[in-house]
Amino acid sequence: MKAVIPLAGIGKRLRPLTHTCPKALVPVAGKPILGHIVDSLIDAGVTELVPIIGYMGGQIRDYFLEDYDMPVNFVIQEDQKGIAHAVSLTREYADNSELIIILGDTIIDADFSKIPEAGDYVLGVREVDDPHRFGICEVSGGIITGIEEKPENPKSNLAVVGIYYFKDSSLLYRSCEHVIENDIRTKDEYQLTDALSNMIENDVKFVPYKIDNWFDCGKVETLLETNSTLLKGNKSGYAGKDSLIIDPCFIGSGSSIKDSIIGPDVTVAKGCTIKNSIIRNSIISENCIVSGANLADSVLGRGAEVRGKSGRLNISDDSQVDSD
Length: 324
Hints:
Elements: E1 2-6, E2 27-28, E3 31-32, H1 33-43, E4 48-53, H2 57-67, E5 75-76, H3 83-88, H4 91-94, E6 99-102, E7 106-109, H5 115-118, E8 121-127, E9 135-140, E10 143-149, E11 158-166, H6 170-181, H7 192-201, E12 207-210, E13 213-216, H8 220-231, E14 244-245, E15 249-251, E16 256-258, E17 261-262, E18 266-268, E19 273-275, E20 278-280, E21 282-284, E22 289-291, E23 294-296, E24 299-300, E25 305-307, E26 310-311, E27 314-315, E28 320-322
Helix pairs in contact: 6-7
């Protein structure tokens, strides 16, 4: 089984963090967002990956090559024309195959191996409070009968949550081609929902697969909520004697914590130095230095240095913030 992962987005809602780091590599609960996604795919039996990269794609390429020993075929989307366009670019590597597509900006807590058991064509779905923000599907008799992207007048509150399964991907690629050739756009983009609608019109029977836990990592507030949820029950195991670690936390390898209180709900990536500080409900990326600070609800980019600062921070890689 192959997996296509669209990763070309620029992550505007996570700026300034994503000025220097692609959204998929932002750490959450001990590993990058992308790491959670790929590990779940491997557990489900995926043997080949097709990442679609664009913005800061070199960093994503390096991450795959350094952390995963499996076939990876990179596809570049230079122009942001929508997910259907992005998927169409992968045809060379994934046509006529058993295929999972999973969007690269959400973490789905589900047993992916169960999805193919639901049917030959399956869409992950979940009820949402605000259906105007999502692709929304209608279901009748256990079959999806229609899909609409971000509808003004939603016919249901059942959202497509970013994971799709195709026993045979050939019809998907034909439908993506149909959408592009006929310039069918929604919100000025070639949407995957329009390609799926075309498949439904051609009598493909999609089965809904309920996803209980679906975590949005698209903005700082929801990123921190996801970090907190995924850390539940995690014990850091940090052995330092001069600091208090209030679990759940994750403390990465090579990180040094002195005379500090860390937690709850804190991810500290590898190689960080923290001293004389209090940190709670935050994500500290790798190689950060934090000294004399009191931080909450914060996200620090890689290599950031914070000294003597209190409050909430959202800063990008290699930033330096000192007390006034």
